[in-house]
Structure formats: C-alpha cells, structure tokens
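thought: fold this chain, then report.
action: predict
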Amino acid sequence: MKKNLLILLLGICYCNIDLYDIKWMGVKVAECSAEVSDTLINENFFIKLDYKVKSNLFMKLLFNVTNHYTTIIDPTNYNIIFYSKNTTQPNLSNQILKTDYIDQKVTYPGTNYIINENEKNIFSLLYLLSAKKISDYDNIILDREGKKYKCQISIKNEEYILNISEKAKENTGFYENTDIFSWALFLPNTDKKLKINKNKIEYCKFKKGLISFTANRVK
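observation:
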C-alpha cells in the first residue's frame, strides 16, 4: 500500500520546463533549460530547480560550455536546503560542487561558508519572482557559492531591474574564479533586467557598456 501510494504521489508531481536562447551581442551562443519540479526527500516534498546551459553548435567550436545547476528549496519558507553545480568550460578546471546539510545548516564542503536562512541564490530568486513569492524588494541577500551580495529590485515599464552589489569584496567564496555564467550574472556596474508574464520569465537582459547578453524564452 505504501509503495503504491509513493508511486501515485510521484505520478502527480509537478514539473515545468522552459527553454531559452542565449544571445551575445545579438548572436545565439547557447541554450538554457529551466526546470521546476517537485522532489520527494524523506517523505517530504520540496521544490527542485534545475538549470542547464550548453553552447550551441556554432559556439562549441570557439568556447564550449556545459553547465548544470541544481537548487532545492523548502516550500514552507523558501529556504535553500541544497545546491550543486557541475560546469565545464575552457581554461577553467571542471567545477563539481555539492553542499552538505549538517545540523540544519547548508554548508560548502570543507569550508566555513554556509547558506543562511532567508538567503537566496540567483536561481531561487528567479523562481520566487516569477511565482510572486517575494514582497520585500529592498533587503534580499544572494549567495553565490559562499560569496554574499545585496540585491535590491525595482520595477519600471513592466521590467524587474536588479541592483546587485558585493557585501564583502575580500570574500572570494568557494571558488575564486567561478564559471562564466555565475561570473557574468554578478558583474558590478551591469544593467540587469527581466520581464515576467503569467508566472513565466520571458527574458533576462544583462548589459555592461557595449557588451550585452540576453536570454529569451522560446518554449
């Protein structure tokens, strides 16, 4: 009976996948899938966020990137309980990372870096914004693999504008040199905008000077 109930529960689990084209200076360079699903851990349901980024055929010849990020959050308070990434890119050692959950603390292995309660990462932030689960736009703390940032959000012309700044520049986090997408998302003095429509992120735009990246939802 218990086994049948588990199968039934897994059968009705929620899952949604959105696909994005990533363009650099207007030229498509990569594809991204963003998957939101229910996951069962110790007989409790949690929200799993899976982001996968890979270079397209053209860009593979120049700069081949394959990145996979997973964040699991508690649906009762939206705290992060797990984060992992597996990234491959030129001129950077493969970065394989999984957090530990010890004494109700999410820690980066072998370090004093932790993800505190009420902190977000960029992936949980995007999910919570699209689901309209954030009410305070002025006091958001973001974690990027142990490095902390302050995020303030404003809305103009239906676009969410993210103002992200380092809390402690001397803190390098778990990786001093992180992967290109994690690095680009947190570049200082960068315009960061996104648009949400019907609980879907339609696009994200990042611009620094004359350089621009966009991610547009295609499906």
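thought: worth noting. The mean pLDDT is 91.
final: tokens above.
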